[in-house]
Design goal:
There is one protein chain. With about 260 residues, the protein is of the alpha/beta class. The protein has a domain at about 30-100 and about 125-130 and about 165-255: Metallo-dependent phosphatases (Purple Acid Phosphatase, chain A, domain 2, 4-Layer Sandwich). The protein contains nine helices and eleven strands. It has helices at about 1-10, 45-60, 80-85, 100-110, 125-130, 140-150, 155-160, 190-195, 235-240, and strands at about 25, 30-35, 65-70, 95-100, 165-170, 170-175, 210-215, 225, 230, 240-245, 255. The strands form two sheets. The protein has a six-stranded mixed sheet with strand order 1-5-6-7-9-8, with no helix packed on it. Strands 4-3-2-10-11 form a five-stranded mixed sheet. The longest helix is centred in the first third of the chain and has 16 residues, at about 45-60. It is globular. The N and C termini lie far apart (about 40 Å).
C-alpha cells in the first residue's frame, strides 16, 4: 500500500485505499497508560507535556504506554515538527501508540487527490502545508504533486497511512472521536471512530465494561464521566494541551501544560 501510494504521487496509477484501518486489541493492559488529546500542530506544548509525562513515568514501576489520540496536524503552526516528533523514538522507556484522527484522514485524501480547491485546505491544511515550507499552492495538479513530493518525507506519509483507528485493553477503549452504541468494537466503522461526536443530550451512564478515552470534541476542561474521558481541550485555541494517566484501579490523573 505505501509503495503504491508513493508511486501515485510520483505520477503512476492511483492506489486502492483500504476501507478500514487496523484495530489493536490487547488481552492485558500495561501498569500505566498516558493518553494525550488533540495536538493540532502545537509542537511546543506537546514537547512540554511529554517532559511532564516522562518525569512522572520515572517514578512508576511496570510497563508504561503513551497513546496519542489523533489530530496531530492542521490549525496550529508546527504540524511538520509534530510529525517529526511522532515518527522518532520516545525519549523515555515508554511504548508509544498513535491513533488516526479525522484530520489525518482528510490530509491523506488530499494526497490521494491533490488539488488547489481541496476541502482540506479550508480545514486547517494550509497551516500544515506552511509548516512544511509550501507557502504557495500550485493550481496545476502535476506541479502540486511534485511540490508535495519535494517537501513531505516518505516516513511521514507511511506514518499517516498505517495509523490504527482503535486500541482496546481490559477496562479501556482508545479512539479519536467515539464509538457507535450497540456495535462490537471489532466491527466499528472508521467513519464513526474518527468523526463521531457525543450527543448533547447523552446520558452519562456506563453502558459498556470499558471506559472510552477520546478527543475530537473540544471542551473547556477534561471531561471524566462514567463511561468516557474526553481529552480535547482545544490546544490551538485555548493554549492548553491535556493528558491523563490511567494506573490500574487508581483514579485517573490529569496532566496538562500550556
Amino acid at each position: 500500500m505505501i509503495g503504491e501510494f508513493l508511486n501515485f504521487l510520483r505520477g503512476k496509477s492511483a492506489p486502492a485505499v483500504a476501507s478500514q484501518r487496523r484495530k489493536l486489541f490487547f488481552d492485558e493492559a500495561p501498569d500505566h497508560i498516558y493518553a494525550i488529546g488533540d495536538v493540532h500542530g502545537c509542537d511546543d506544548m506537546l514537547g512540554r507535556l511529554e517532559d511532564l509525562i516522562f518525569e512522572d513515568s520515572r517514578n512508576r514501576q511496570g510497563a508504561k504506554w503513551l497513546i496519542m489520540l489523533g489530530d496531530y496536524v492542521d490549525r496550529g503552526p508546527k504540524s511538520a515538527s509534530v510529525m517529526d516528533r511522532l515518527t522518532s523514538r520516545p525519549r523515555a522507556d515508554i511504548k508509544r501508540i498513535c491513533l488516526a484522527g479525522n484530520h489525518e484522514d482528510v490530509m491523506l485524501d488530499f494526497f490521494h487527490n491533490p488539488s488547489a480547491d481541496h476541502r482540506w485546505l479550508d480545514f486547517g491544511g494550509l497551516e500544515t502545508l506552511y509548516s512544511y515550507g509550501l507557502h504557495k499552492i500550485p493550481s496545476n495538479r502535476h506541479a502540486l504533486k511534485n511540490a508535495l513530493l519535494a517537501r513531505f518525507p516518505d516516513e511521514h506519509l507511511t506514518f499517516l497511512e498505517t495509523l490504527p483507528s482503535l486500541v482496546s485493553v481490559p477496562g479501556y477503549c482508545f479512539v479519536h472521536a467515539g464509538i457507535r452504541d450497540g456495535v462490537r468494537l471489532a466491527e466499528q466503522d472508521d467513519a464513526d471512530l474518527l468523526w463521531l461526536r457525543p450527543g448533547a443530550d447523552e446520558k452519562r451512564v456506563a453502558t459498556n465494561d470499558f471506559v472510552i478515552v477520546h478527543g475530537h470534541t473540544p471542551v473547556s476542561n477534561v471531561e471524566i464521566g462514567a463511561d468516557r474521558i474526553n481529552l480535547d481541550t482545544g490546544a490551538f485555541m485555548s493554549g492548553v494541551l491535556s493528558a491523563v494517566r490511567l494506573s490500574g484501579r487508581n483514579a485517573p490523573e490529569i496532566i496538562q501544560c500550556s
